[in-house]
Amino acid sequence: MKPAGVLPRRQRLAGLSFNRVLPNLMTLLGLCIGLSSIRLGLDGRYGAAVLAVSVSGVIDGLDGRLARLLKATSRFGAEFDSLADFLCFGIAPALLLYIWSLEPWGAIGFLPPLMFTSAMALRLARFNATLDSAPKPAFAQNFFTGVPAPAGALLVLCPLFLGLAAGEHGLFGLQALVSYPLFTGAVMVGVALLCVSTLPVWSFKNFKIPAAEILPLLLGVVVFAALVFADPYSAGALAGLAYVVMLPFSLRSYRKLAREAAAWRAGLVAGRGSEGDSSK
Fold first, then answer.
1. Band of the pLDDT at 1, cuts 50, 70, 90?
2. 143, 200 Cβ separation under 8 angstroms
3. CATH superfamily label, 18-259
């Protein structure tokens, strides 16, 4: 029996802490921004639309890292993130480019968006399937299989970035070229193939930077940030071009690490064999 005048203890609320919900809230915010880009494109505000897709890409890069930092990773979060990625990076860019460039070609012009969106769905489904598969070798942990969804959206929007930049600088010949349906469709098909390919691509999750290259990297980030504020459309096109240039180096790095891992395994097997022979 409790003494008189002592208040009963309040029961603690059951449920998840805010830290565990925060990454999902960020994913939801990115989804809303990606969906809003479609509305902006329907209104003809293509500049705002591509910037909205870019912002959703930044949020997508942050929510996963935040979840790992707060130890709030879950299967629900992974599935929700994939669904948001499909909308923001599979559907929104395809519709934007169709409205901006491909609509005059009618049903034929709709084929590249169909291919790109289908490829993005397959790429995300393959990524989800690997969550339950056997872990990759240690050297392969820092690589994606195929171009990831946010990078695919960046690459496929390069014609729109270039067209907007060319229009602002009065380069109407370049604007007509990059907005021509054949050029836009070819870019979409090429990026779709990159997304579903088995090309190893740096993930930058555990990317180590040599100490001597930290200062140049910081200066480069400052220059790129200044370009983003001064001319965001040119910055988007330049980022896409830099990503394409990076792909062969990523493949070379993967092959080098694979050869080193194979040589190490061969040496280990040979060492065990010699030990077995000496024990006889």
1. low
2. yes
3. CDP-alcohol phosphotransferase transmembrane (TM) domain (1.20.120.1760)
